[in-house]
Amino acid sequence: MSFPRATENLQWEEDLCFKVRGKIFVIVSLDRLRLCFKCTPETFAELIEREDIRPAPYVGRYKWVMLDRLHALPNDELEDLIRQSYNMVAAKVPKKKAQKSNSRKKISRKGAIRRKTRARKR
Residue 29 phi/psi, 5° resolution? Predict the structure, then answer.
């Protein structure tokens, strides 16, 4: 699966986070092979009734679920749910933030150069 503008990075030591424009849409816990993702309120209510699926710690109130086993759902259903998570998170990223994250590298680099120059002058 691939998503436009999606990135991945290791966060919180053992969690692989997939992000769109800086916002997480899937978390894979590498130490226990668990998976978390955002879903609609209706899907959330349905999923947490299933075995090996529960509200995700810390973010369950925002309708994130955690799969205690990667095979708690059939692959095709899981792919659809991950795609929905991506679409929901991508849709909520404000346009200004999206534009800012697209040009962040240029701004950050210039800012770093300015900070170094100021530090040398002092």
Answer: -85, 115
Is 77 among the domain residues?
A: yes
Any idea which residue has 């659809």 for tokens? 80
Domain that holds residue 84: 6-121
Two tokens, residue 2:
């691939």
What whole-number distance in Å separates Cα of residue 75 and Cα of residue 93? Answer: 27
Please give the C-alpha separations between residue 67 and each of 29, 64, 119, in angstroms, as whole numbers.
10, 10, 48
Better pLDDT: 119 or 29 = 29
Instruction: Provide the pLDDT for residue 99.
Output: 52
Q: How many domains does the chain have?
A: 1
Q: Name every residue whose Cβ is closer than 8 Å to that of residue 30 and which is 6 or more positions away in sequence.
A: 14, 15, 16
pLDDT single digits (tens) 55-89: 998 888 889 999 998 888 999 999 999 999 999 99
Q: Is residue 1 part of a domain?
A: no
The conformation of residue 49, written as its DSSP 8-state character, comes to: T
pLDDT in tens, 36-61: 999 999 999 999 999 999 999 888 88
- CATH number of the structural domain spanning residue 72: 3.90.1150.30
